[in-house]
Amino acid sequence: MPQTPSRIVAPVVEVFASFQGEGSFVGEAQVFLRLAGCPLRCLWCDTPGSWAMRPDKAARIQRDGEPVQREDRVASPFQAALWIAAVEPGEPRTVSITGGEPLMWPDFIRALRPMLGNRRMHLETAGAHPESLARVLDVIDHVSLDLKLPSDMAEPVELERVVLTPREGEAADADRPEEAEEAEDPEEADVLAPTTETAPRTREDWAMARRRCLDLIQDHDACVKVVVSGGKPPREYDELFEDVARRAPNCPVFIAPATPIGGVRAPEFQDLVTVVENARDLGLDVRVLPQVHRMLGIA
Ligand code: SF4
């Protein structure tokens, strides 16, 4: 159920200016708005700190050359827009909304759009929530859609809504439901209410979500990203490329060799070449692009 416009909030991990490290706009100076909350569990995730909503944590606002400013994490779209303007070192920049999984917060994204003036708004998403994507697509200038191999995903979790107690400004204690109920009066409390759309669990769920997302972006400004990790047969990626070829054949495909993390390895060079050739055989516009922001050691 959509949130009341005057009470839309989302948990903000950080707002900062940097260079885009992936996809069609690599190298562009942008502002990044990272929202907390992700039900997915990619084995090579480099931002596990954004999985939990954690309304008790601070939002990190980083202005160039200044000490990090820490603010209340739960923010309205208006507050987020003020932070975006504050961290821009110069002229207004494109804003990339990232996560976590930003499609947990479709109402927030829609409400943010008119507050960004003529800045472009880009979305970086895992492509697991097509209903949420459909809700925001008309306000997004560019979608960067990650396509995931089911074998790269651990079991997802579901994010629960959190009723915030305005008197203390803290999350209601889940062990004291009477307090949460009391605070649930819309005049009394804000609610962190992520989308109720469930995350894919099975291979079939993933295929369905992926295909619906590709159908949505086929005529939109968008790119697809596929992370290729070591130890996988190159043919395993075919199911992703075949769906792109059938549903969004004009969408550029960026293949990102996995940056080693935890037990995940970078791919062998020959395997990477084979993956690229398999995608090219389907007529796709394929480019190999390492995760530049991680090579440079920037966010
Ligand atoms: S979707 Fe993004 S934030 Fe969520 S687990 Fe995957 S890489 Fe991490």
TrEMBL record:
<dbReference type="InterPro" id="IPR013785">
    <property type="entry name" value="Aldolase_TIM"/>
</dbReference>
<feature type="compositionally biased region" description="Acidic residues">
    <location>
        <begin position="178"/>
        <end position="190"/>
    </location>
</feature>
<dbReference type="GO" id="GO:0000287">
    <property type="term" value="F:magnesium ion binding"/>
</dbReference>
<comment type="function">
    <text>Catalyzes the complex heterocyclic radical-mediated conversion of 6-carboxy-5,6,7,8-tetrahydropterin (CPH4) to 7-carboxy-7-deazaguanine (CDG), a step common to the biosynthetic pathways of all 7-deazapurine-containing compounds.</text>
</comment>
<keyword id="KW-0408">Iron</keyword>
<dbReference type="GO" id="GO:1904047">
    <property type="term" value="F:S-adenosyl-L-methionine binding"/>
</dbReference>
<keyword id="KW-0671">Queuosine biosynthesis</keyword>
<dbReference type="Pfam" id="PF04055">
    <property type="entry name" value="Radical_SAM"/>
</dbReference>
<feature type="compositionally biased region" description="Basic and acidic residues">
    <location>
        <begin position="167"/>
        <end position="177"/>
    </location>
</feature>
<keyword id="KW-0456">Lyase</keyword>
<feature type="binding site">
    <location>
        <position position="34"/>
    </location>
    <ligand>
        <name>substrate</name>
    </ligand>
</feature>
<dbReference type="GO" id="GO:0008616">
    <property type="term" value="P:tRNA queuosine(34) biosynthetic process"/>
</dbReference>
<keyword id="KW-0411">Iron-sulfur</keyword>
<keyword id="KW-0479">Metal-binding</keyword>
<feature type="binding site">
    <location>
        <position position="47"/>
    </location>
    <ligand>
        <name>Mg(2+)</name>
    </ligand>
</feature>
<feature type="binding site">
    <location>
        <position position="98"/>
    </location>
    <ligand>
        <name>substrate</name>
    </ligand>
</feature>
<feature type="binding site">
    <location>
        <begin position="19"/>
        <end position="21"/>
    </location>
    <ligand>
        <name>substrate</name>
    </ligand>
</feature>
<comment type="pathway">
    <text>Purine metabolism; 7-cyano-7-deazaguanine biosynthesis.</text>
</comment>
<feature type="domain" description="Radical SAM core">
    <location>
        <begin position="25"/>
        <end position="299"/>
    </location>
</feature>
<comment type="subunit">
    <text>Homodimer.</text>
</comment>
<protein>
    <recommendedName>
        <fullName>7-carboxy-7-deazaguanine synthase</fullName>
        <ecNumber>4.3.99.3</ecNumber>
    </recommendedName>
</protein>
<keyword id="KW-0004">4Fe-4S</keyword>
<feature type="region of interest" description="Disordered">
    <location>
        <begin position="165"/>
        <end position="203"/>
    </location>
</feature>
<feature type="binding site">
    <location>
        <position position="100"/>
    </location>
    <ligand>
        <name>S-adenosyl-L-methionine</name>
    </ligand>
</feature>
<dbReference type="GO" id="GO:0016840">
    <property type="term" value="F:carbon-nitrogen lyase activity"/>
</dbReference>
<dbReference type="GO" id="GO:0051539">
    <property type="term" value="F:4 iron, 4 sulfur cluster binding"/>
</dbReference>
<dbReference type="InterPro" id="IPR007197">
    <property type="entry name" value="rSAM"/>
</dbReference>
<feature type="binding site">
    <location>
        <position position="38"/>
    </location>
    <ligand>
        <name>[4Fe-4S] cluster</name>
    </ligand>
</feature>
<dbReference type="InterPro" id="IPR024924">
    <property type="entry name" value="7-CO-7-deazaguanine_synth-like"/>
</dbReference>
<comment type="similarity">
    <text>Belongs to the radical SAM superfamily. 7-carboxy-7-deazaguanine synthase family.</text>
</comment>
<keyword id="KW-0460">Magnesium</keyword>
<feature type="binding site">
    <location>
        <position position="42"/>
    </location>
    <ligand>
        <name>[4Fe-4S] cluster</name>
    </ligand>
</feature>
<keyword id="KW-0949">S-adenosyl-L-methionine</keyword>
<feature type="binding site">
    <location>
        <begin position="44"/>
        <end position="46"/>
    </location>
    <ligand>
        <name>S-adenosyl-L-methionine</name>
    </ligand>
</feature>
<dbReference type="InterPro" id="IPR058240">
    <property type="entry name" value="rSAM_sf"/>
</dbReference>
<feature type="binding site">
    <location>
        <position position="45"/>
    </location>
    <ligand>
        <name>[4Fe-4S] cluster</name>
    </ligand>
</feature>
